[in-house]
Structure to design on (244 residues):
């Protein structure tokens, strides 16, 4: 059983590394062709690429430990019994988990901005102009707080495992896009009154600091008054730029 546990963790870590480097290299090559889509043209975030990648290796290991431990607990029958996998149970589990994870991330992230806790989050904010490599450039305590949802969810919801793996996949890709520093997703649905966001949203968290703590939806930032006041106008500008 112990060997199975470590094999599970190793397989998940390997998958996360393949996704991080595979998607990162693709996104970097694609964005390089569109310099006018850069959100902070005056800054060169890629100067920190090597440091960001090195910081990401232990953070992704922590993330793998959390997801893998939760999943392993479910395979051993230590959690809530999962619903049978079907289209309805998959979609419902994915959507409910996504909404809960967005809230978990928002409040965990705000906690990390509270001065006694900020030292655990400071590493992530060394990236003022984030890049596709910045998403996981975080300390292990930071990652533990924001990603502990992936350990807990199995104990509070009867989720089929595939739905949580799909959530982690979506979260990794959307997080990397959200840090990429290039805007390709500006649209009317990424601004008021819609709850969706585009890359500019979390980019503003890095450049302006005390705004936009979410990185999936804008719901909590809008409800609690932490959405950046210029965000919606910046999205419109990118929409107009894309239409030209
Ligand atoms: Zn932050
Ligand atoms: Zn960030």
């Amino acid at each position: 059983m112990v060997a199975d546990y470590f094999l599970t963790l190793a397989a998940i870590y390997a998958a996360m590394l393949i996704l991080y480097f595979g998607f990162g290299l693709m996104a970097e090559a694609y964005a390089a062709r569109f310099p006018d889509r850069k959100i902070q043209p005056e800054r060169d975030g890629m100067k920190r690429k090597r440091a960001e990648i090195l910081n990401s290796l232990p953070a992704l290991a922590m993330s793998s430990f959390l997801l893998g431990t939760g999943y392993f607990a479910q395979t051993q029958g230590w959690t809530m019994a999962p619903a049978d996998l079907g289209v309805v149970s998959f979609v419902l589990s994915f959507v409910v988990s996504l909404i809960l994870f967005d809230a978990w991330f928002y409040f965990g992230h705000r906690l990390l901005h509270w001065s006694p806790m900020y030292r655990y989050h400071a590493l992530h904010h060394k990236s003022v102009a984030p890049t596709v490599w910045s998403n996981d450039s975080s300390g292990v305590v930071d990652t533990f707080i924001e990603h502990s949802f992936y350990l807990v969810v199995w104990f509070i919801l009867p989720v089929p495992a595939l739905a949580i793996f799909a959530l982690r996949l979506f979260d990794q890709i959307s997080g990397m896009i959200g840090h990429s520093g290039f805007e390709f997703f500006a649209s009317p649905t990424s601004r008021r009154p819609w709850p969706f966001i585009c890359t500019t949203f979390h980019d503003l968290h890095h450049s302006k600091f005390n705004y936009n703590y979410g990185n999936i939806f804008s719901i909590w930032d809008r409800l609690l008054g932490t959405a950046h006041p210029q965000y919606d106008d910046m999205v419109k500008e990118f929409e107009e730029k894309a239409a030209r």
